[in-house]
Amino acid sequence: MTLSAELSSIVGGDRAETDPAAIGARLRDNSWLSPVLSGYIDAMAGASVGGSLGVEAIVGPANLEQLAACVAAAYRHDTPITMLGAGTSNFGQSIPMRGGIVIELSRLCEMGDPAVAASNGRITVGAGALLGRVDAVVRAHGAELPVMTTTYAASHAAGWVAGGHVGLGSSSWGTIWDGNIVGATVMTCEAVPRLLHLDEDSVEPVLHAYGTTGIITDVTFRLVPARTWVEMVVAFPRFDNAARFVVDLAEQAEGIRVAAAQEPMLTPAFTALADDAADDDALVMAIVADSETDFVTALAAARGGRVIPWQGLGASRRPTLAYMVYGHRMLWVKKLFASAAFLHCYLSESRPVDQLLAIKARFGEHCLVEMKYIRSRWLRERWGQSGDGVIFAPLVGMANGREDLDDLLAFCDGIGVAYQNPHTFFLDEQGLFADPGLLHRFKRQVDPHGLLNPGKLSDEPSSAVGVR
How many Å is the Cα radius of gyration of the chain? Predict the structure, then answer.
């Protein structure tokens, strides 16, 4: 029996897609945001039947038993396995580099009792649970997820934990490595797949690991007391004032879910603000606790800013500001500069605005910057800043894309700006992990034949070797 036929018998014919064109249509994630990655993906798709990237089937098991049977079948056939969530990732995490099969776990979406979870300060949910739904359910019981991706409406729990790392709430609660993921269950890729239950002290090897280090079947999230969040836009006549306002918030305010200063060149893209902001205004997208609004308004006025009410404060508009920050921001940038590329930067603790303005001065209109901060001990230690506190983490977009990217990397090196490079398929070459060996060692334990998402670690062969 062929592998495709075997998989169909396991999950049912309606849950096993084998048509190459239909497969190709489902495989593209948001890595088109990178002109580097998208070029390689387009070449691979063009060389494959129906743009399927060599994938012979996409299957959707209904439970752990079906999942284990699918994994065991692929193992017997020595066939690579790539896990697929909602496909909202930006770095090619779920792009199959060596064909094989794709498994999506949207039907594994159970969750624990929300009342008990809120009381205990943690909730365990299935891999396919939607983050926005999880947050809504626990919020009804007085709790919330401390950190959520901006794509919370579509993103699955396991997909975000395996592919993302920061988002809404990171200005207060940090990253997925800062105690916000307190457990997970992973399935091994072996002849007889096993389930490994990881606690807060052992979960790190599967965080942001692209599904290369085990198949995440459930995630346990930390919960914090729910707050009422208010959205506001603060307009400034100069970007440096907007950036310094963000620094003020980092140093003086609590209860900030996100605060991101946007380059004035991007303001015309935010068409919902056309009646309230001038095209040359620098805008700060802020989501703050309702108890902090008066203090934040006073800080803004001290820097020469004016508040434009958004969600709350007597106004109700769409879209949410969550869709204008972090990775979502690049969707707006792409409206103006289709070939733009971006870089995650980490600034000096002592002179963050000076470094950011130096980047702007060097590249001028070719450069669009977003200034934000993350309260993360883990990121601070990664980039050589000891102890608790914030790290300033702008997203720097280059209008000319790949043409300017190498110059930006070299300039950042020259002025002491650290960065995470998203323009590589290799997760251990992004620069985010201080010890990539941890991923390699754990992978050898759970995936002895290297079948899980191969080509995403730099010591593995792949069709994208050379992408950096």
Answer: 22
Confidence class of residue 286 from pLDDT cuts 50, 70 and 90? very high
- What is Dmax (Cα atoms) for the chain? 72
Give mean pLDDT, residues 6-32: 92
> What is the C-alpha separation between 31 and 327, in angstroms, rounded?
11
What is the distance between the alpha carbons of residues 187 and 52, in angstroms, rounded to a whole number? Answer: 26
Spell out the residues 6+ positions from residue 271 whose beta carbon is closer than 8 angstroms to its own.
Answer: none
Give helix 293-302 / helix 239-252 axis angle, nearest 10°.
Answer: 140
Helix axes 402-415, 35-46, angle to 10 degrees: 140
| Preceding omega of 319 cis (within 30 degrees of 0) | yes
Cβ neighbours of residue 240 under 8 Å, at least 6 residues apart?
Answer: 353, 357
CA separation for the pair 160, 164 (Å, rounded):
5
Q: What are the C-alpha distances in Å from 150 to residues 184, 320, 449?
A: 22, 10, 35
Residue 462 has pLDDT above 60, yes or no: no
pLDDT digits (tens, 9 = 90+) for 82-92: 999 888 877 78
- Mean residue pLDDT across the chain: 92
| 261: region left, alpha or beta (phi > 0 left; psi from -120 to 50 alpha) | beta
Q: Is the pLDDT of residue 460 over 70?
A: no
Residue 14 has pLDDT above 60, yes or no: yes
Give me the sign of the Cα torsion angle 397, 373, 263, 145.
positive
Q: Pairing between strand 100-104 and 55-59?
A: parallel
Which segments of 237-378 are extended strands (E)?
A: 256-262, 282-289, 306-309, 341-346, 367-371, 373-374
Q: What pTM was computed for the model?
A: 0.94
Q: How many of the other CB atoms lie within 10 Å of CB of 169?
A: 25
pLDDT at 336: 86
